[in-house]
Amino acid sequence: MTKQADIYAGYITQSLGLSNPTMLLLLLHLVLLVVVLRRLYFAPASNFPGPFWAKVSMLYEVYHVFFRDDWYDNLISLHENYGPVVRIGPNEVHISDPEFCHNFHRRSDLRKCPEYYGLIGTALGGLAEPQDHLKRKALLQPFFTGKPLAQLISEESSRSGGDTNMTLILWALTNDIMMSYIFGESPGYLAELDLADLPNATRAYGAIDFSTIASHTTKPSQAEKDDDSVFMCLLSQVDGDRKLTTHEIAQAIFIGNESLLSNLSFLLYYMIENPHCVQALRAELDTLDTRTYGHQIWRDPKVSQLPYLDALCRESTRLSPPRWHRQPRQSTEPVPFKTGVIPKGVSISFTLRMLERDETLFRNPEAFLPERWLGGGQEAQTLRQNSITFGTGTRTCLGQSFARQVLKKTLVCILYEFDVSLVDPDKDKNEGLRYLCTYPSKGKAGDMKVRVARRFIASEQ
């Protein structure tokens, strides 16, 4: 059959007067035409409206993310033009209806879209939250005892003539916390004499000693399995003889660290921009008994239960999701929608940032209003029920309680101890507040430069 096919192909080529390269080119064009026509008219998502290039190729998203850098703004424009359901890929529709998104993504039978999450890798899928949080939380305490973080801020301020690079300090803090949480010991970045000497071109990846991590990535012995560290928990859950790779561990550290760093930067920025919130937080902290911890009030376990502090963190995380991040899911059954039925297997996604700024859920959605989360009224209860900052359904972020703990402790440690202001807020805004960018590309990261002044004299510490 192969010989006969070659004879027929040769006969057709000679009859049409075509060379082999020309024939291959024509066949390639024919294949592309078939793929385009199939995606346009015969794909499961073909009945939904959207731009032509989004229907036929995933390169549409690549273009707007990497070349135009306007993916989020483009999504808003698409929904304005096409309605609440827009086709943004050959097999993906994007939804802007908050009620549908909340109900749909709470389902436990949904699978993650492999085309999207396959780009992230397997590290996050293998992470499991430990049953016992007490030992993990105990590892955080040394970072907020007053010496490492507060002392470093003072030393950096004195050494730099009053200006402090808060981005580097928060970077060191979050790296120490993530490494300590996962491995049970800290790399000690907060203790560095000169943080500027730490490699910061790619931040977390640049500072992690991969060779040290790699030396641990072997199948653990029974004695090692008795270790209660998260790292050993991860290793003991790897299937069979497969080793947890250096890349998977480093990826988990990088993503966790950058998320914490971004959220802390947003939170501190909003507090600096809203002095009345700082005053309200300090007033709430002053209600605690200082006889045990003195001015190191962040050490008090009751800090994590303060309602206004919790509202500050919730409002900041609501406003800080990355502009590009969405959550595509696939159903094994057709999904009914207001305007029709979405076929099974089609990826259905929403963007966190878009829903967290929806005017039907949040009044004055672009404003920093922590008060909206306070009290037992209907508005506050509805907001808490519909909060999707850490994901929805069974796929919520495993580290959300850990992240909230870090945000609260760090904010209290800084703002109860220091008065903080931006060095040059006008310059920061003109540059686009680059230090608030999550996962910045090389060369586009910025530093938050602040001035700090101690609120208490040394004898009062």
What does this structure look like?
This protein has 461 residues and is an alpha+beta fold. The protein folds into two domains: 121 residues, no CATH class; 297 residues, Cytochrome P450 (Cytochrome p450), CATH 1.10.630.10. Helix content is 49%, strand content 8%. Helix 11 packs across helix 16. The termini are far apart.
List the helices and strands and how they pair.
Blueprint: H1 2-16, H2 20-42, H3 52-56, H4 59-67, H5 71-82, E1 85-89, E2 92-95, H6 98-104, E3 111-112, H7 114-117, H8 123-126, H9 134-140, H10 148-159, E4 163-165, H11 166-183, H12 204-207, H13 210-214, H14 222-225, H15 230-236, H16 246-273, H17 275-285, H18 307-319, E5 329-330, E6 335-337, E7 340-342, E8 347-349, H19 352-355, H20 378-386, H21 400-417, E9 418-422, H22 425-430, E10 449-454
Parallel strand pairs: 2-8
Antiparallel strand pairs: 1-2, 3-5, 4-10, 5-8, 6-7, 9-10
Cofactor: heme
Binding site for heme: 397
Family: Belongs to the cytochrome P450 family.
Could you write a compact summary of the structure shown?
The protein is α+β, with helices and mostly antiparallel strands and 461 residues long. It folds into 2 domains: 20-120 and 336-355, no CATH class; 123-321 and 363-460, Cytochrome P450 (Cytochrome p450, Orthogonal Bundle), CATH 1.10.630.10.
Radius of gyration: 26 Å
Major sheet attributes: 5 strands, mixed
Assign a percent range to the helix content.
40-55%
What is the global morphology? elongated
The termini sit apart by 88 Å
Put simply, the count of helices is 22
**The CATH top-level class label of the largest domain:** Mainly Alpha
Which regions contain 5 or more consecutive residues with pLDDT less than 50?
121-137, 143-147, 199-227, 234-243
| Corresponding CATH superfamily of the largest domain | Cytochrome P450
CATH topology of the largest domain: Cytochrome p450
Please tell me the overall pLDDT.
76
What is the architecture of the largest domain at the second tier of CATH? Orthogonal Bundle
**Strand segment tally:** 10
